[in-house]
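ASSEMBLY PREDICTION REQUEST
Request ID: AP-0331
Submitted by: J.K., bench scientist
Number of chains: two
Total residues: 1072
Priority: normal
Notes: Please return the full assembly, not individual chains.
Input sequences:
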Amino acid sequence: MTGSALSGIMPHLPALQVVVPLLSAPICFLLRRGLVSWAFATVISWAAFATALLLLQAVLTDGTIRYEIGGWAAPWGIEYVIDATNAIVLVIVAGIGAVVMPYARRSVAAEVPANQHSLYYTAYLLCLAGLLGVSITGDAFNVFVFLEITSLSSYILISAGAGMDRRALTAAYNYLVLGTVGATFFVIGVGLLYMVTGTLNIIDLSARVPALQDNRTIHVAFAFIVVGMGLKLALFPLHTWLPNAYTYAPSTSTAFLAATATKVSVYVLMRFLFVVFAPTYGFMALTLNYVLLPLALIAMVAATIAAIYQYNLKRLLAFSSVAQLGYMVLGIAYGSVQGLTATLLHLFNHALMKGALFLAVGCIMLRVGDVTMLGVRGLGRQMPWTMAAFVVGGLSLIGVPLTVGFISKWYLVTAALSDGRWPIAAVILASSLLAVIYVWKVVEAAYFKEPPAGRVVREAPLSMLVPTWILVLANVGFGINAEFTVDVAQTAAMGLLGIVP
Amino acid sequence: MTAIAELAMPISPGLIVILGGLLVPFLTAGIARVYVLLLSAATLVYVLGLPSGEHAAFTFMDLDLQLLRVDKLSTIFGTIFLIALFLGNLYAWHERDRMQRTAAQIYAGSAIAAAYVGDLVSLFVFWELTAIASVFLIWAAGTDRSFRAGMRYLIIQVGSGVILLAGVLFHVHETGSITFGHIGLGSIGGTLILLAFGIKCAFPLLHNWLQDSYPEATVTGTVILSAFTTKLAVYALARSYAGTEMLIWIGATMTAFPIFYAVIENDLRRVLAYSLNNQLGFMVVGVGIGTELALNGTAAHAFSHILYKALLFMSIGAVLFRTGTCKGSELGGLYKTMPWTTGFCIVGAASISAFPLFSGFISKSMILSAAGEEGHFITWAILLFASAGVFHHSGIKVPFFAFFAHDSGRRPKEAPWNMLLAMAVTAGLCIGIGIWPEPLYAMLPFPVDYVPYTAVHVITQLQLLLFAALAFTFLMRTGLYPPELRSTNLDIDWIYRRALPAIIRGLGSGIGVVWDSLIGGGRMLVSATIDGAARNFGPYGLIGRTVRVGNGVAWVATLLLVTLLIAYSAG
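STATUS: Completed
Returned structure:
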């Protein structure tokens, strides 16, 4: 009975992946009561995670899935296309969403006014639906629609921090303006593509663009899409919306968005660069080499140095995110299988690290209420589990062996060396070395400084520690046994470049 | 033996110590002190029973890693590391600090594990682990100075690891192999790896971290530190760069130049740190010569060096522990109340000075003979000079200033029993090896047909020592103690009386000035960089501050323009 029900659902998993969280959002709003909304959103996000895992398994065994929404065939209807690349992105998004939800109850209760709770979880479900939609869809305009759903809901998720710090409002507003510019650029690019090709389906686009690669309209479309997505993924120097947004948002929002939102934008950029366009085009090769590559390198170093000087832990991690996104763009800029493998690996690995780190910071926020260098003083003894989680996350960020960070760095460096670009390898290693400093700053304050006199702090509650440690252990687990992630990333990278294994 | 052989996969002794060390934080100090002694002793027994060959191989991310390669070279280093750890633990018996005890085990364990690995990637892992674990021994002193020194130490040590990793990547790229065997110069990878080893081995101009950090560690921490990091580097050099001629010159420089600093240095632990540097030079020369005799000499010298250097640090540590200072100018006359410590210090001093019948003699003479046999006469002469120098500052100066010289009026108690016992065992080993070197010779990597006690060796060495002693006495009488100068009856020409000390001082301060300006210039450059970075990257700097929406949009427009132009130019 259940078996047949499941097999009846299976073919429609791609639709359910998006539709379930999307339709749950209004229900969540109608539930009104904060706790009920939370429980509902938790169940939905775990269901989304299960769906994503099933989809990944299906893709890995049977290859690409194409699903026509409502039975309308591709040129007219919207098509969902799932291959190894976006299957892993779906798993990241839904997985982080699922892990964050149990954590959210205590954290949101402490940081968001009680009358906004059900609104908050509604926005969260919308954001989840939007991110999943962007990842899963095979239609360029549909990407824009889901991107807007994501953006609008994430403005709410960020401004919900206004109860703690009014600056959340300006941060959200700043993000709104820039995010809208980014999305508009993207849709302008898509519109120009539609103008010359007459299709919005990504697979059709990839078939028609090659014939038009000398067309000026295509070049302009390309520039708009690269810059628009560059802004959404916080490519240096278009990252200016990110530090404040991450700093003043509630901890749950920060952990969720930092681990997922920029990653999805990286994915979209890869999908357009390597599927719709191709690195063999003259203008694309130039852009990769003279725009994306230098900006990625600058981001890796400049944002890391900026992180060293930050006083607020969330801001520190935000700048570190800008640097880490530099690593991902670097892999893209190589334009090779090794480079894309490294990017995809880091996409996954960085979600684990930053998720764990921001969750640990959220624990500090709950108990101490102050996430500056002053606030973490002496926490090594007062909140041992939280700080231990932070340390492991930090080691992973640096790229210490036995953590996922090492795997990422290894593949990035190997990719650089295989093209003979050893100065780039040196920059990667130097920026990792700089990361030691900002992680160390926190360790020093937490373990070697005395806590402020008279402050009594308890360890964070289990409902928050367990999700944090799940991500911490994932950092170590996937760091020791990287076979699975490397295999998927390699398959995905070859898929993006159209190489048949 | 058979029991171990039956195990499918024997575990690396280093991992035993590391994993065992991880338990220490959960034990009370009373149990932990016994536990770490048993742990190091049991691992030592285990090491001696390990069957030679390659074990514990596994594949990780397409890399063939190998955690346990047992041959004579790894065994002799593993053995002496464990002996040093045991003695260090005994010396630190009274210590109640859990962090130090844990850090010491993990640090030593990583060094031991590194001595047994068979591939470069595992080497890198343990290489970094020694850096990270050992810095806690420096920080444990709890002073601001020690914190800063520890930070500098950590940056340099981790930097060495990063360079090693870069070198390994190049090496893999060039050769396709990650085996930790002979590498040699002649490729980028080989050069980078040598640089990484050289930093840890305190090559000239890369050495400053050693004198900077070791003297800032705790009393027990310095004893532990002195044994592992640099000797691990010597081991790695012997493994990968035997016969690299450049090392002969590097090593010869290392033996000679610290002497000038050691002579003018007042902090006795720092004097010992300089002489540590000088002794490493002998080992590096041995590696550079690369013959069987030279490599045997390097291994034997590392073995005896770890013991007598630990003994010297232990005795000065005991003084520091009882009096709170180890400055030569504030000490003196301690032999009255610390007779045992004095005696052990003299044994250590005699060993480092290579007196016949002490351990330094039977190992150092092997390296000297190897240099002579291969026709490196300039090197041989420098080493001879350095031997005299080391006798001068470590052999005479350290015990003399601490325990004799002017009576400082201090009457500290004798060192605690555990320190005395640790020193007694170490001193016993120093003498034992000196008198009966055959068991050590049997452990060396190559068959030994070397006889240390020939008339020529003994007489050369005694002559050298006598003249060095004479020089010291002479300087004492003439230059270093001006008040005594007035009462001296020596009817020696004033030129010699004034000129020799002046030359020595001039040489010392001349080098000092150059060095200080180099370091000072470097420091200014570093702080200017840091200040500049703080201005531009700090929370209110160009990069770090909150950026207004308008400026953000301006960046978007700029980047769009650039991308459009590039696309346009390509089309």
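REVIEWER COMMENTS: The radius of gyration of chain A is 21 Å.
SIGN-OFF: pending second reviewer
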